[in-house]
Structures are given as C-alpha cells and as structure tokens.
Design a protein that fits this description.
The protein has a 3-stranded antiparallel beta sheet. It is elongated, with a radius of gyration of 15 Å. It has 5 helices and 3 strands, in the order ααβααββα. By secondary structure, it is an alpha+beta fold.
Length: about 100
C-alpha cells in the first residue's frame, strides 16, 4: 500500500490539472480556448494550472499567431505522459485495494 501512495503525484492533485492531462493524453495538443471550454474554468484559473504543469515540465507551450489572433497550444511531454500514467495506475491500485 505504501508503494502505491509514492506514485501518486502532487502535480495532479487538482481536478483542473487532472483534466488538462487527461485531454492531452488523448490529443496531440489542445489550445487554451478548447481546454477552457472542456474544463469549464476561468482564464486565470486555467492559466495558473497550466503554468504549474509547465514548471514541472509535464507540458510544453507553443505560442503562435493565426492571422492576427494569438493562439497558444499545449502538449504533454514524454515525462508528463509517463508521470500521469504512473499516477492513474496508482489511483486504480489504491481503489482496488480498498
């Protein structure tokens, strides 16, 4: 049981971060607007959680312009994918053992 807990990653302890990573695990990338709509959160709230995931290098950020409009795309890194899989597996094991 103790080993399972060690694989639960604090970076994913908030539902919005969990949601961001869930979206990025099944999509090559997602832009800010899409993530905001899917997760139903405010700009500031989403931005702070994206920054937290970027800081630990679980996501990458690509800023570009489409026409004259700024567009920011997010993608999960290999490290982010690996850590998220470990986190989800640990949660599944924890649920099965209780």
């Amino acid at each position: 049981m103790k080993n399972i807990i060690l694989n639960i990653n604090k970076a994913f302890d908030h539902r919005i971060r969990l949601g961001i990573m869930s979206v990025l695990m099944v999509n090559e990338y997602a832009d800010f607007k899409t993530l905001k709509e899917l997760l139903g959160c405010t700009d500031g709230n989403l931005a702070s959680h994206l920054k937290a995931l970027e800081k630990v290098e679980f996501i990458t950020v690509e800023k570009q312009f489409i026409g004259r409009k700024p567009n920011t795309k997010y993608a999960s890194t290999l490290l982010g994918k690996a850590e998220f899989k470990k986190h989800i597996n640990a949660l599944e094991k924890l649920i099965k053992n209780t």
